[in-house]
Write a structure and sequence with these properties.
- By secondary structure, this protein is an alpha+beta fold.
- Helices cover about 45% and strands about 20% of the residues.
- The chain is built from 14 helices and 13 strands.
- It is extended.
Length: about 425
Amino acid sequence: MKYEVKPAEKSTVKITIAFSPEEWEEANNKAYVQNRNKYAVNGFRRGKVPKHVLELYYGKGLFYEEALNLLYAEHYGEILEKEKEHFTAVGEPTLSLGEDFSEENIVLVAEVPVKPDVTIGSYKGIKIPKYEYNVTDADVEKEIESVRERIAESVEVTDRAAQEGDTVNIDFVGKADGKEFDGGSAKGYDLTLGSHSFIPGFEEGVAGMTLGEVKDIAVTFPEDYQSEELKGKAAVFTVTLHKITGKLLPELDEAFAKKMGSDSMEAYTAKVRERLEKNAASRSLNETENSILTEIAKTASAEIPQVMIDRQCEAAMQRMEYNLMYQGIKLDDYLAYIGTTREEYKKNFEEEARTTVLHQLIIEKIIALEGITATEEEIEAKIAEQAASVGKEAEEYKKTMDPRQREYIENDIKITKLFAFLQENNEMIIAEEK
């Protein structure tokens, strides 16, 4: 087998693979052995028909396709391994036969999408926004109040009007131009006021109603409402209030703190602040790193193969599917509801996917240009840190590690060093808090 690699258009390479007649004959014999049970000829038992008889009966090229598949499977991976210093395949190749294909001229052509080189105008000495988020006492209080809301007891209310935060049980009938419309009526519906699950004005109109009250609430459907017939239309809902369920918030005392896993409110408040500060630091870091890449990308360019963009779009679709699943919604049902297909909806992610791929290429390029590495000591220290986080010794932890995890740790160390380098070598300007 001999091969030749040449650059082609749009971040692809063309690999021309030529096989000797002997290799071709051997591949055809293997194809015959693997597939002879599929064919029958009168006078022979299935699987016992000689190769030349099958070729006479079904045609000379009966096993050609399978023989080519065997040669491809045997040699393509080997070629990629030999050429890994020159290019990285990022998708499956498009295969074709060479010109004047014959038993004396067996040539297979593979056009392979490869990771593109990225050209960067500048990545040092530029002005870049840096984001910093601080945790205030008000943030801590708001978080604790949110926890109180989540663990509050539900109690039936009889001595006051409905208010935001209550769950009300209602009947309603909606009319537009004096006529009821589809989906505008329900009986015994539970609605949490302040959830914004109804059109603007509806929940606000229910707030203030008392038990047994019947009230007409006038609303206007939004201009972007999903129903064409109701977009921007005025409507009146006749609402009957049957039940009000409120929340009984727990006292902020030692019992509450113990329920949340702390000995006192002071200890619990400190724990909440620590968690919020950790989240704020993570947010600051993520937004600053994204800001750095965004600025560098303004002077960068790369001819990105569509397969790399498609892969990112598919990953985004999977994340969306998981998020919907946690809400009890199937992706196919959601797509049917908004009247589109998976392939059409996936196009919404293309621009973001292109940006993500470009940022990844920029990271890899600068790491290579600056010779950023992760030492063995740094990798081992990170493994020990991860082991300690799950209560294991490093050596014990390494025995259960996924083989790819070490590579991930190495890359993570390199990327951390990269962003530290980029912050040191650029003018980082504190941005206003968003």
